[in-house]
Amino acid sequence: MPHGEAHTSLLRPILEREAEAPDSEALRLLVEKARSRHPGAMAVLFYGSCLRDGITEDRMADLYVIVRRYREAHRNPISALFNALLPPNVYYLEAGNAAQTFRAKYAVVSMNQLHSRVKGSALHPYFWARFSQPTAIAWHDSDDTRDTCLKIFERAQQTMLAAALPTVLAETSDQIWLHALKQTYATELRAENALRGADILATDPERYRLTGELFLKSVEGLWRKPVWFGRSLWWMRRAIGKPLSVLRLMKAAFTFAGGATYLAWKVERHSGVRIPLTEWQKRHPILAGIPLAVKLYRQGALR
User: Fold this and answer.
1) How many Å apart are CA 174 and CA 10, to the nearest integer?
2) Does a structural domain hold residue 266?
3) Strand partners, 109
4) Pairing relation of β-strands 60-67 and 101-110?
5) How many C-beta atoms surround the C-beta of residue 147 within 10 A?
6) 210 within domain boundaries
7) Residue 62 in 3-state DSSP?
8) Contact by Cβ (8 Å): 46, 138
9) Is residue 199 part of a domain?
10) Which residues neighbour 291 within 8 Å (Cβ) at sequence distance 6 or greater?
11) Does 117 reside within a domain?
């Protein structure tokens, strides 16, 4: 069996186990409401800290709604256009019962775009970095859709580690994952500190050890990109990544109700820097965003 096929056959059971969504009323309520907003939804994916620790009232779940076509999924054609030009669109969601209210931020992306943007030919890691990490399929419309999602997770992980390999210092499972996470975080405006990659590995060290070893075994004896080429690609990813992050934040201001408050909360949670917002900043996040970003950068809240 070729190296790549062997890697996939061993990785698939791990991803299938991770894809099993937790039995959670909060998750069901959020998924149902997110689906109801976007006709033509094919799947809802669940990832991040709430997947590991559970959804509570004081935390915000992270979801992805995968759709067939943007024009079908959005009532507003302008939203559909911007979703296609710079995916994903990001939205805020609340759902609950008589006793509790649960919150989520969710992103919308088409299946075709997601599939293309986790391939090795996709320069920026926005999608392949996210889906190389544990992701549950909270809802899917068919077995074919579920299988496609699992293939996307496989490809994302392969792309993530292959991108890191040419410039990694030591070819061990821990080092390749640490290096991959560090490099991808550097391509975006992030509130997390430099130890974030190690924190992620610590959430499930056995998972990252095993998947890293499977990948390294799959590339034994194969031709590799030279170090200079790998470094050049990461330089380009960083050069385009920060401007893309700014554009995505500006776009989210139109779709993410309460977005300024959420971003300030997230920055404080990860960096310890508290950002009191005025009513004007809450109402005009785009106009306030640039001077606020400069202030956050000077205070060390963004890197």
Assistant:
1) 18
2) no
3) 66
4) parallel
5) 11
6) yes
7) strand
8) yes
9) yes
10) none
11) yes
Number of domains in the chain: 1
Return the CATH number at 176: 3.30.460.10
**Other beta carbons less than 10 A from residue 209's beta carbon:** 15
Highest mean pLDDT among 86-90, 91-95, 289-293: 86-90
The average confidence (pLDDT) of the chain is 85
Q: Give kind and range of the element (H or E) at residue 93.
A: strand 89-96
| Domain with 7 in it | 3-257
Are residues 287 and 248 in contact, defined by beta-carbon separation less than 8 angstroms?
Answer: no
Helices 173-185 and 196-203: crossing angle in degrees, nearest 10, is 130
pLDDT band per the 50, 70, 90 thresholds, residue 3: very low
Give 287's DSSP letter: H
CA pair distance 156, 252, nearest whole angstrom = 24
Pairing between strand 60-67 and 41-47?
antiparallel
In the structure encoding, which two tokens stand for residue 78, read together? Answer: 């302008």
Which helix (H) or strand (E) segment holds residue 229: the answer is: helix 227-255
Q: For the chain, how many helices (H) and strands (E)? A: 15, 5
In tens, the pLDDT along 89-143 reads 998 888 988 788 898 999 999 999 999 999 999 999 999 999 999 999 999 999 9
Average pLDDT over residues 40-49: 96
Selection from 118, 150, 115, 113 nearest residue 135 by Cα: 150
What pLDDT is stored for residue 246 in this prediction? 81
- Cα dist. 8→36, 42, 107, 151, 207 in Å? 34, 24, 27, 9, 15
Buried b (16+ CB within 10 A) or exposed e, 213-250: ebbbebbeeeeeeeeeebeebbeebeeebeebbeebbe
Q: How far apart are the first and last CA of the chain?
A: 44
- Cβ neighbours for 136, distance < 8 A, ≥ 6 positions apart: 18, 19, 20, 21, 22, 45, 46, 47, 51
